Amino acid sequence: MSCLASCCSALTCGLCSSVASGISKKSARLAYCGLFGLSLIVSWILREVGAPLLEKLPWINNSTHTKAWFQQQAVFRVSLGNFLFFAVLALIMIGVKDQNDRRDSWHHGGWIAKMVIWVLLVILMFFLPNVVITVYGTLSKFGAGVFLLVQVIILLDFTHSWNDAWVEKDEQKWYIALLAVSAGCYLAAFVFSGILFIWFNPSGHDCGLNIFFIVMTMVLAFSFGIIALYPAVNGSLLPASVISVYCAYVCYTGLSSEPRDYACNGLHNKSSAVSTSTLILGMLTTVLSVLYSAFRAGSSTTFLSPPTSPKSGSKKPLLEGEDVEEGKEKKVTEAQPVSYSYSFFHLIFAMASMYSAMLLSGWTSSSESSDLVDVGWTSVWVRICTEWVTAALYVWTLVAPLIFPDREF
Q1: Residue 14: which pLDDT band, with cuts at 50, 70 and 90?
Q2: Which end of the chain has less Cβ packing within 10 Å, N or C?
């Protein structure tokens, strides 16, 4: 039996070594996303089943606490370990400009060591006193806000890049495609807003707040189109329509986060608990959203590329010609610059770790059922404020060149 166990251990280690060594430079970002996704799964599992285990730890269960409190502790401790892992990497990678830097290999390699360090960090977080976790929970609110802001900036960058790419083709079929996609997105935004009236404004109830949120979303969508088509503004309908759909979606997520016993929440006021399948679907949506945002942030060439990167607009050639010095010919080959900022890439994951902790803990609001994810008035207002900030930033990208004509945007 011991021989069989030894063989299994050897095979497992060999498999891990093969996987780790097989991660190339091109797949490193995907591997970081996978590690981050694993942390979310671990957080969710411990949130569901870890409360009884934490109750047995005397340095954690040192007074009377509810089940929801222990669930938040499990989520925060995993999140803190994940945050420290990526935050340390972000600090280590500060100043990496070319691939000759030894830290470039640290970023792309050493995966067995990274996995071991990540596991140890997560485990060690469960030995920290509660006061440390409380402080981290407070700081996570600000870190999650920063991540939401970065997410909005990435969306704006994506919509403008998409529009510019199609316009640069300068062909009739692409202009038709722009018009068709813009019309489709606007139609979807207004139809979806109309559906929200049915779901979150049930008859017989005074739902003025919900009506205000939905009407404001429709007004913003209409305003985007008017401002984008104004002759003095160098705008386009495609970004306006995509941002309109996004605002409608964020409005929906905010309204669906309203408490279960709130009469105006037409989706959930008929059931007292969420089914397991609904929880799994909601969690998968959250995981995919956070992973896409982090991966897109690490791939963006607008504000993540270091000054020496060819993607940042540097016109300096990668290979120098031959130098003649004192009768000798010397080939001077410059190191190839990195294509994106490693430090900022890891910082995005660190902020996303805080954001995921807020999602799974209901933004530290324990007034709702401990079986629900991302439900409560705090979640509602965070979503609605995110929608309004998105609208403000998009309008600013349109009007800023008019207000400051001498500055380049």
Answers
A1: very low
A2: N
